[in-house]
């Protein structure tokens, strides 16, 4: 069992396989995105070794993230090999653009659930937000995922007050009518941005629930998940409506997860810079799972108790989500 210094059981990791994207999302608002040199990124074999070490230490759930994970050449090797481990869940976060190509193979590899980022249903606004993306790509990806038969498909939307908050009812109705779950996420202060004021754009989960209550009859769900989402349900629909609230409803006390970036940094908290360099261990001791597991266990003693986000336009964490892992 993997336990941090506060007694929290760590049974979930987010493993980022690349920092590259085919189009950006609301999280990555930099004027220019920069990417790591290839040699700094973990190889596919190293990614599998990290996943295997965590599972041997007691982790039960692995989520593959990026950047956009499905643009990594040969990425199915990671899914195929991790899918053979004794996991409760192997899941994926994606922007959906590559799902028409990969959905069936992912399901065959053992992926049960996927999260698809979708911040707007307006094609023009979607192109504006992503700079190069086409909404039709994502909608085609959602259809491919539905056809592949994943147990659950969830949409994720980062909500900004003056950018897409007015679209929350439409996004919700789309999800409900398609039989999809959806989670609305408060913006996190990651990376330096110039496109908006974080304080002015912040939209709390409570505000969104009040907005949705004008359109749907909402009731909180009793069942708790191991993740940060708190779920509600609308009358006459089976889908869940989630709210991820790192600012307004801090969930650090029950945190059960860590992240591994594409360059092998074990990030112990999304809202802090505490990290351990697993790439250095992997390359100093190739094939030595024991040394890797020791490094992971030692790092757990430095996982902070909580983060302290605020709405300042000065970045509290310099890295963007493409290097953190979504």
Automatic annotation (TrEMBL):
Q: In which pathway does it act?
A: Cofactor biosynthesis; molybdopterin biosynthesis
Manner of cofactor binding, per the entry note = Binds 2 [4Fe-4S] clusters. Binds 1 [4Fe-4S] cluster coordinated with 3 cysteines and an exchangeable S-adenosyl-L-methionine and 1 [4Fe-4S] cluster coordinated with 3 cysteines and the GTP-derived substrate.
Look up the EC number in the record and give it. 4.1.99.22
Q: Quote the PROSITE patterns the UniProt record gives.
A: MOAA_NIFB_PQQE, RADICAL_SAM
> Ribosomal protein as a keyword?
no
Q: Which cofactors does this gene product need?
A: [4Fe-4S] cluster
Using the record's annotation, list all stretches that form the Radical SAM core domain.
5-221
Catalytic activity, per the record?
A: GTP + AH2 + S-adenosyl-L-methionine = (8S)-3',8-cyclo-7,8-dihydroguanosine 5'-triphosphate + 5'-deoxyadenosine + L-methionine + A + H(+)
Q: Which residues form the signal peptide?
A: none
Stretches of the chain forming a coiled coil according to its record? none
Residues at which S-adenosyl-L-methionine binds? 27, 67, 117, 188
Xref: SMART domains: Elp3
Residues reported to bind GTP: 14, 63, 93, 154, 257-259
Instruction: Output one GO MF annotation.
Output: 4 iron, 4 sulfur cluster binding
* Record-linked PANTHER family: MOLYBDENUM COFACTOR BIOSYNTHESIS PROTEIN 1 (PTHR22960:SF0), MOLYBDOPTERIN COFACTOR SYNTHESIS PROTEIN A (PTHR22960)
Report the function annotation for this chain: Catalyzes the cyclization of GTP to (8S)-3',8-cyclo-7,8-dihydroguanosine 5'-triphosphate.
Which NCBIfam families does UniProt cross-reference here?
Answer: moaA (TIGR02666)
- What family does the entry list? Belongs to the radical SAM superfamily. MoaA family.
The protein's matches in HAMAP family, at most eight in alphabetical order, are given as: MoaA_B
**Protein known as:** GTP 3',8-cyclase
């Amino acid at each position: 069992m993997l336990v941090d210094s506060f007694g929290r059981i760590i049974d979930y990791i987010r493993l980022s396989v690349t920092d590259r994207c085919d189009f950006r999302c609301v999280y990555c608002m930099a004027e220019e995105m920069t990417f790591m040199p290839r040699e700094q990124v973990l190889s596919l074999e190293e990614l599998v070794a990290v996943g295997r070490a965590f599972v041997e230490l007691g982790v039960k759930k692995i989520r593959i993230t990026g950047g956009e994970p499905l643009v990594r050449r040969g990425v199915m090797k990671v899914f195929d090999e991790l899918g053979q481990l004794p996991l409760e869940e192997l899941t994926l976060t994606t922007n959906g653009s590559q799902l028409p190509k990969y959905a069936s193979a992912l399901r065959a590899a053992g992926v049960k659930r996927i999260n698809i980022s979708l911040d707007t249903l307006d094609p023009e606004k979607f192109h504006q937000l992503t700079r190069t993306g086409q909404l039709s790509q994502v909608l085609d990806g959602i259809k491919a995922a539905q056809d592949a038969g994943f147990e659950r498909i969830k949409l994720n939307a980062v909500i900004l007050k003056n950018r897409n908050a007015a679209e929350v009812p439409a996004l919700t109705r789309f999800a409900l009518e398609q039989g999809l779950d959806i989670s609305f996420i408060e913006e996190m202060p990651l990376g330096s941005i110039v496109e908006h004021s974080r304080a002015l754009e912040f939209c709390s989960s409570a505000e969104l629930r009040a907005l949705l209550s004008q359109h749907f009859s909402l009731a909180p769900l009793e069942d708790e998940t191991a993740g940060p989402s708190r779920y509600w349900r609308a009358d006459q629909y089976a889908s869940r409506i989630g709210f991820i609230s790192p600012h307004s409803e801090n969930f650090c006390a029950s945190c059960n997860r860590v992240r591994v970036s594409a360059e092998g940094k074990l990030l112990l908290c999304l809202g802090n810079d505490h990290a351990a360099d697993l790439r250095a261990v992997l390359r100093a001791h190739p094939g030595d799972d024991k040394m890797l597991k020791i490094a992971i266990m030692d790092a757990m003693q430095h996982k902070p108790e909580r983060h302290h986000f605020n709405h300042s336009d000065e970045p509290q964490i310099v890295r963007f989500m493409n290097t953190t892992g979504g």
